[in-house]
Design goal:
- The protein has about 350 residues and is α/β, with parallel strands linked by helices.
- The chain folds into three domains: about 5-45, Orthogonal Bundle (434 Repressor (Amino-terminal Domain)), CATH 1.10.260; about 60-165 and about 300-325, Rossmann fold (3-Layer(aba) Sandwich); about 165-295, Response regulator (Rossmann fold).
- The protein is about 40% helix and about 15% strand.
- The chain is built from twelve helices and twelve strands.
- It has helices at about 5-10, 15-20, 30-45, 50-55, 70-85, 100-115, 130-135, 165-180, 195-210, 225-240, 250-265, 300-315, and strands spanning about 60-65, 90-95, 120, 145-150, 160-165, 185-190, 220, 245-250, 275-280, 290-295, 320-325, 330.
- The strands form two sheets. A six-stranded parallel sheet has the order 2-1-3-4-5-11, sandwiched between helices. Strands 7-6-8-9-10-12 form a six-stranded mixed sheet, sandwiched between helices.
- Helix 11 (about 250-265) links the parallel strand 8 (about 245-250) and strand 9 (about 275-280).
- It starts with a helix and ends in an 11-residue tail after the last strand.
- About 40% of the residues are buried.
Length: about 350
């Protein structure tokens, strides 16, 4: 294995100069930097990142923990994070927790051991109670800054938060269905332990109450945020004595599962059942009937989270916690029953 000393001998400089070039120091003359970079290339030198981490106390890496990496929403968030991280010369470690708090804990322990510089977290439990023992007793100086994205994180663990206005978006989407004359609107959502589910439920209930309509618990389905969860919920709803006339799925996988179940039963959308979703995905505009959605700005949520984290890493962030709330946008297509121009 090629060493720093061998690179230094090839470039005709001191080993400390090679280290400065590797670490991006500005205290190296341009011509010297070029000689060192040429020597590194010729010898095929690869810096020892673990050793650099021990010396500097930083890893040059940030981690992104999401609950389902196959979900296009989270994939787009991660793309926004990665684009900014690359510009700032930071590496991104991606972790998938499967909505599992134990798996989230395991990842965080490992990341802390590796001296990760910062964390962007979509937590499986917004209460943060499952994370107390992970950080409890640690020297505060060793705890990397955390930015919560998509879901809030209680307990003061997150330095900053980037979310959508879930309550307002949910209220507007429900109001859109009410405007079509629907009074029995089913809601498909995940477990209430995450802030997104609680906020979208609150918006749905607010819209119904403002119209003087009762909250029917039979129409509210807490299911896993998967296509299978969406299919199972629809099968349960269709077995009711008074089934819904409209379905509001609170994420794209639930909507896809609901659509699949309705097709299996021969129920036409929107003629026999209206269907809308929170979250837009590329196929929502490609499948027939085109899906009406409340779209989130997933890419810029990721960009903003990474920019806020980078400010923390550079000690430029304020002492107080910050919160950025993105406004979702209603995109009307055919699945809600709207007649669109040809």
């Amino acid at each position: 294995m090629v060493t720093v000393r061998e690179v230094a001998e090839r470039a005709g400089v001191a080993p400390v100069t090679v280290s400065r070039v590797i670490n991006g120091s500005s205290k190296v003359r341009p011509d010297t930097k070029r000689r060192v970079e040429q020597a590194i290339k010729e010898l095929g030198f690869v810096p020892n990142l673990a050793a650099r981490t021990l010396r500097s106390g930083t890893s040059g890496s940030v981690a992104v923990l999401v609950t389902d990496v196959t979900n296009p929403f989270f994939t787009t968030v991660v793309r926004g994070v990665e684009d900014i991280a690359h510009q700032r010369k930071l590496r991104v470690i991606l972790c998938n927790t499967d909505e599992n708090t134990a798996k989230e804990q395991d990842y965080l322990v490992t990341l802390l051991q590796q001296r990760i510089d910062g964390i962007i977290l979509v937590s499986a439990d917004s209460s943060g109670k499952h994370l107390i023992h992970v950080f409890d007793g640690l020297n505060p100086a060793l705890v990397p800054p955390i930015v919560a994205v998509d879901r809030r994180l209680e307990g003061g663990l997150a330095k900053d938060t980037v979310v959508s206005n879930n309550r307002l978006g949910s209220k507007e989407l429900t109001e859109h269905l009410l405007g079509h004359g629907h009074t029995r609107i089913a809601l498909l959502l995940g477990l209430s332990k995450v802030s997104v589910a609680a906020e979208r439920l609150a918006g749905y209930e607010e819209a119904l109450r403002q119209q003087g309509l009762p909250i029917d618990d039979q129409l509210i389905c807490h299911v896993p945020l998967t296509m299978a969860g969406g299919r199972a919920a629809v099968q349960t709803l269709l077995s009711l004595g008074a089934p819904p006339t409209a379905i509001y799925a609170t994420n794209n996988f639930l909507a896809a599962g609901a659509m699949s179940a309705l097709r299996e039963r021969g129920i036409k959308v929107p003629e026999q059942m209206a269907l809308v979703s929170f979250d837009d995905i590329e196929m929502a505009a490609a499948i027939d009937p085109f899906l009406t959605v409340m779209a989130q700005d997933a890419y810029n949520m990721g960009v903003t989270a990474m920019e806020m984290l980078h400010e923390r890493l550079c000690d430029r962030g304020p002492a107080t916690e910050r919160q950025v709330v993105f406004q979702p946008r209603l995109i009307i297509r055919r699945s809600c029953g709207c007649r669109l121009p040809a």
